[in-house]
Amino acid sequence: MSKDCGNHGGGGGGGTASRICGAIIGFIIIVLITIFLVWVILQPTKPRFILQDATVYAFNLSQPNLLTSNFQITIASRNRNSRIGIYYDRLHVYATYRNQQITLRTAIPPTYQGHKEDNVWSPFVYGNSVPIAPFNAVALGDEQNRGFVTLIIRADGRVRWKVGTLITGKYHLHVRCLAYINLADKAAGVHVGENAVKYMLVNKCSVNV
Question: Topology versus the membrane, per the UniProt entry (predicted)?
């Protein structure tokens, strides 16, 4: 015998079961329509990220094509929505040079960002004797000789949106921040300790959700 909602025999019990199933299906449809309408009306805006500064503790390219680097960066995020909160369930920060990852990924603790709220993180990103592709090592050596190094600070993770009591599924978050660092002129930064130099950047990042 079939167990679907509309086929329980000819007795009164079958009619009751059909009404219950119909009510459940109707409720689910109403909930889905409500979520869709709320989503369309509020139109969530992706967060804004700014790379504020980078403190360079080490940046050494040695033979054969090995890079050792150590940075502390300050990155700020703002939720521009007035009615939508953001859960950062996972966020990893790292540095790349010409699309090659040159540091380990540093995890940012999961956090909730309320309406019009700002968060500031200052993680360390580093890599010890990381092998660099030969063509990238040549380009990086040329940039070091000129005194300017261009890196991309990346943040990848997953976020959820909170609308009232409703929480969405997880969405991928990709952040890209340009870091143009003047290694030749340490006077362009602020000395922190004996060997570290802090460079003010204040660069707006690209954000994709």
Answer: Single-pass membrane protein
Alpha carbon dihedral 28, 41, 165, 209, in 10-degree steps, equals 100
Q: Return the domain boundaries, the chain.
A: 45-208
Main-chain dihedrals φ then ψ at residue 95, nearest 5 degrees: -115, 145
Q: What's the CATH fold of domain 45-208?
A: Immunoglobulin-like (2.60.40)
> What amino acid occupies position 110?
P
Q: CA-CA distance, 110 to 91, in Å (whole number)?
A: 7
Q: Which of the four pLDDT bands, split at 50, 70 and 90, describes residue 40?
A: low
Return the structure tokens found at 195.
């060997």
* Residue 8 scores a pLDDT above 80: no
The predicted-structure confidence for 120-143, as pLDDT tens digits, reads as follows: 999 999 999 999 999 999 999 999
CB-CB neighbours of 164 under 10 Å: 10
Alpha helices in 6-82 (DSSP H): 12-42
- Residue 140 is classified by DSSP as H
